[in-house]
Structure formats: structure tokens, C-alpha cells
Amino acid sequence: MSGRPDSGTDPEMADSEAAAVQDEAADPEQDEGAARRARWTAAATGAALTLAGLAAALLRLTGPAPALVPAAYASGAAVCASAAVLGSRGRTRRALWLLIAGVMVMALGDQFD
Questions:
Q1: Contact between residue 72 and residue 106 where contact means Cβ atoms under 8 Å apart
Q2: I need a labelling partner for 73 at 20 to 30 A (CA). Which of 9, 58, 81, 92 fits?
Q3: Angle at 98 between CA 94 and CA 70, to 5 degrees
Q4: What CA–CA distance (Å, rounded) separates 104 from 96?
């Protein structure tokens, strides 16, 4: 180590930082609000992407696109719908990954067009 020996942290600064961390962790109402917002966000995003995927599948189904394209949109919408259900139940991390996977499936279907 090449630091100076007197470059340690102030005990007052370390105590104030520890108190700030305790204050943030000690507020369960704030944690509940953040969890509620995460659930609503995951559910709403999943529902919106589901509707968008179903609308795209219906539009592609009526057009001259190959059958694989609407199937990809519909399957991506199904994955996003399951993400909305998981998000509403509090599994927001899994819902996020399912939303990403659903959008990727829809994008892959768009590449087949």
C-alpha cells in the first residue's frame, strides 16, 4: 500500500455514515412502498407488452407474413403475460427476466419477416 499512514477515515465520519445506513434500513414503510411500486411496474409493463404482442400477432396474421412471425409475437406475448402474473405476485426479478425474454422472442419473430 502506498497510502499515507494518517489517511484513515475520521471516526466521526464513519459514525455518521453508519447512522445514515441504519436510518435507511430501519424504515419498513419505505421498503413496502418500493416493493409495491415494483410489483405495479412489473405487472403494468407485462400487461402492456402482452397487449402489444397480441396486437402485432393479429396484424401479422392478416398480412402476407409467414406463419412463424405471428406465432413468435403470440408466444412472446404469452411470456410477457406470465411475467405480469409473476410481477403482481411479488416475483419482480423473475418477471423482469421474463419480460426481456418475451421482447426478445417478439424481436426474433420480427426478423423472420
A1: yes
A2: 92
A3: 165
A4: 12
Give CA–CA dist 49/37, Å, rounded.
18
Say if residues 86 and 95 touch (Cβ distance below 8 Å). Answer: yes
Which amino acid, one-letter code, is at 110?
D
Supply the pTM of this predicted model: 0.72
| Phi, psi for residue 29 in degrees, rounded to 5 | -65, -40
Distance CA 24, CA 4 (A): 33
Per-residue pLDDT of the chain (113 residues; tens, 9 = 90+): 566 665 555 555 555 555 555 555 557 778 888 888 999 999 999 999 999 999 999 999 998 888 899 999 999 999 999 999 999 998 999 999 999 999 999 999 888 87
Joined grid coordinates for residue 9: 477515515
